[in-house]
Amino acid sequence: MIERKKQQMTRDKVSRLVNWGHWFAFFNGILAMLIGARYIGSVGYPESVIGWSYLAISTIGHFTFLAFIVYLIFIFPITLLLPYSKILRGFAAFIASIGLYALLYDTIIYDDYGIHLSPFAFDLAWQDLNALLHSTSYIVTPIVIVVVELTVANFLWKRIDKIQKKQWGNKVVLFVGICFVSSHLLHIWADATNITEITRFDDAYPVSYPATARSFMENHGIDSSMRSTEYRNTKSRNLSYPISPMQCTVDSQPNILVISIDSLRADMVDNVTMPFLSQYRNQNQRFMDHYTGGIDFETSMFTLMYGLQGNYSDRKEFDSTSPILTNILTQQGYQLAMFAPKSDEYIANSAMFNDIHMHTSEGRNGSADADINTINAVNVWQLNQTQPWFTLVNLTAPKDYDTPVGFLGIQTVKPHVALKPAQKVLFNQYRQSLNFIDQQLATLLDNVSDDTVVLITGTYGQVFTSNTNDARSNLSPDNVNVPLIIHWPNSHSNKINYRTSHYGIAPTLLSHVLGCTNPSTDYSSGRGLLEPNNETWVYIGDSRRFAIYQKSEITVLDRFGKYRIYDLDYSKRLDKKLSAPELIQVMREGRRLFNQ
To answer: What is the pLDDT of residues 452-461, one digit of tens each?
Structure first.
């Protein structure tokens, strides 16, 4: 009988401790919500009732759920093993304090770098600790949190019986459960209908995985293959682009021709494969160590036109913000035109080309025929212009290894790089396509006056594979090293050996052609091409996967913080840690225009 009473008392004590633990977790969920409000300031506040509604129920459901998970993993087992209230209250206050301070630290990292806490982010932030924790409040705050946790733990323990008598528990659980489920259902609807006012908060909170229309359909046996697997990062924040109003005065207005060739490798411009371009390069300004800004058309062209790192292209603000370059060209009375093969809807819908009149070409027999039609259209268009013009020409045959029917090309040769047998076939077919493009360039430039500023570059490079997914995810030098040739009216040929990138093209045109006196940092991530800069890195890619090309190594990262470090030939993986100072500069540059 006595033993049974002891067991009953123990069960009652454990039950009381469990009830206390639930309320303690709920209170910490509220504290987590208050700290989590800092994320909203980093992302940008909602602009509609539906955005605020989603944010409210998502915040309640998410942070309460996180607090309960922490309780379930760290505190509940101790409740069963050591059912002593004094020990448990102290232990729970300690665990809760660590959790809240980790959350607070995560808000700091997210605001500064745009990523959540992970081994990668922690390692990066630890080496930048002085810059992050620049106030004594980060010394006082942990002490305050511990005091609050101990006070609340004791307060709830003394009043747990009164709280239980009020029977609020089931109502709170029901309310939080409704918020949690409703936020996911609302997100499924927003994802299916592309309501960016909701989906832009997808990555705002740590350990947040809202249900999507795709996952919902797949889980219920509905085909979702027609739905895109990638969405733009629609974080919204006040954009300062440019940081200061542009100051531009121009004395002369030369025509400007920019030719961007998809899949043009720097090491393939030679006297045999591309004799015209090779000779043209030697007669003009040539940049021998030039890098594209991305390994797909969208990202690379974004870096060329805006002069910004590719991760800016994923931001919602640039869906409606045209480049400073085209804005100034329009203000100065230029006629703007783009000539390209008919492609996806990106070109038509992108704000990048809002100021540009589009001319698209089709080819019945492939991209080579489309390129021929593009060149013919440019030549005809030029003849009818009476105002200064800016023309962007995109040629695409090399990315498809394409040549016109009946094209007589050049002899096959042994590749200058080590390739497998199937790759050797692609290598020589690629050379045929480049030789075809070389002839088209000769046709085009023969009709361009010598007083025109001409810029020829590769949109991105080429790796020899028939798998387009592999090609467009490869961040090796073969895929990012592209030629850059600039013809300046009345100038001599010269060779530039220092490293340059697409980021420098817009600042160069704005300062040296359009007479803009603003520092390039007002509107660009790059520096002018004509002045050597002190930067020791180049960012290539978007926010999902990117590479940092440094002086002696290449670091490839993804959005989850996984990284690999290679030598400059991309042939050997190096067993070393990240170079934090340079990476910190990269991360901050990618958010600089939102931090003014």
So the answer is: 999 999 999 9
Residue 259's CB: how many other CB atoms inside 10 A? 24
The C-alpha angle with vertex 300 and arms to 294 and 305, in degrees rounded to 5, equals: 145
**Which two three-digit tokens encode residue 449?**
């006056």
Residue 554 near residue 546 (C-beta atoms within 8 A):
no
End-to-end CA distance of the chain: 74
What are the backbone angles phi and psi of residue 523, rounded to the nearest 5°? Answer: -145, 5
Q: Is the dihedral of CA 233, 234, 236, 238 positive or negative?
A: positive
242 prior amide bond cis, ω within 30: yes
Q: What CA–CA distance (Å, rounded) separates 307 from 518?
A: 14
**If DSSP codes are grouped into helix, strand and coil, which group holds residue 418?**
coil
Tokens of 483: 């030629």
230-281 tens-digit pLDDT = 444 445 557 889 999 999 998 889 999 999 999 999 999 999 999 999 999 9
Tell how strand 545-549 and strand 538-541 pair up: antiparallel
137-165 and 85-113 are packed helices; what angle lies between their axes, rounded to 10 degrees?
130
| Token digits of residue 291 | 């890098």
Tokens 């506040």 belong to 45
The answer to whether the beta carbons of residues 361 and 393 sit under 8 Å apart is no
Q: What is the phi/psi pair of residue 516, to 5°?
A: -85, 135
Sequence letter at residue 52: W
Give the list of residues 6+ apart from residue 37 with CB closer than 8 angstroms, or none: 59
Query: Residue 390's beta-bridge partner residues?
Result: 256, 336
Residue 57: which residues within 8 A CB-CB, separation 6 or more? 179, 182, 183, 186
Q: Check if the beta carbon of residue 27 is closer than 8 Å to that of residue 152.
A: yes
Cβ-contact 203, 11 below 8 angstroms: no
Which string of DSSP letters, residue by residue, matches 93-105? Answer: HHHHHHHHHHHHH
Q: Which helix (H) or strand (E) holds 417?
A: none
pTM: 0.76
* 3-state DSSP assignment of residue 292: coil
How far, in Å, CA of 451 to CA of 487, rounded? 9
Count the neighbouring beta carbons within 10 Å of the beta carbon of residue 47: 10
Helix (H, G, I), strand (E, B) or coil at 548: strand
